[in-house]
């Protein structure tokens, strides 16, 4: 087991501006692709730009794409999010598919830094009643009962089911008005 999680900042799950409750707002504001026009390590980025960049720009109209050619430098991607965070990724020796995958990964991120979670649930307004679970309102005699128990093992009688009630209503309407009888096959 690795202890690399110990060096991550810890926190709670946060959604930016309650994104997704009304409509989804993509959090990637702009992406900058920096590459060299002749260097071999930039081949995948150049291939992506030549073949897939226009399709990416059409499918993500809310994201601005900048291309920045640089001489004799290693290729990289810089993603800037609406919350002000920036993410840098070196694309040295990436293939065209790898550039596409990393770009779609950055599009789906919220920009919130990767962190380990302290708890599985968190609220800003804690309840005084405690956390609900399926056993909260169960009868306390179940805790000390030994099964099979004759009283607790009996099936509950809740009356007729919804299907039985509908069949009963249908039969009543047939008795009252025989003209509405469905045709027999």
TrEMBL record:
Keywords in alphabetical order, please: Mitochondrion, Ribonucleoprotein, Ribosomal protein
Top-down, what is the taxonomic lineage of the species of origin?
A: Eukaryota, Metazoa, Ecdysozoa, Arthropoda, Crustacea
One Pfam match, given by its short name, reads L51_S25_CI-B8
**Ranges for domain Ribosomal protein/NADH dehydrogenase:** 37-110
> What's the protein here called?
Large ribosomal subunit protein mL43
Annotated compartments: Mitochondrion
A GO term from the CC aspect: mitochondrial large ribosomal subunit
InterPro entries cross-referenced by the UniProt entry? Ribosomal_mL43, Ribosomal_mL43/mS25/NADH_DH, Thioredoxin-like_sf
Q: What's a single GO BP term from this record? A: mitochondrial translation
ATP-binding keyword on record: no
GO molecular-function terms, A-Z: structural constituent of ribosome
Protein encoded by which gene: EOG090X0FS9
The family assignment reads: Belongs to the mitochondrion-specific ribosomal protein mL43 family.
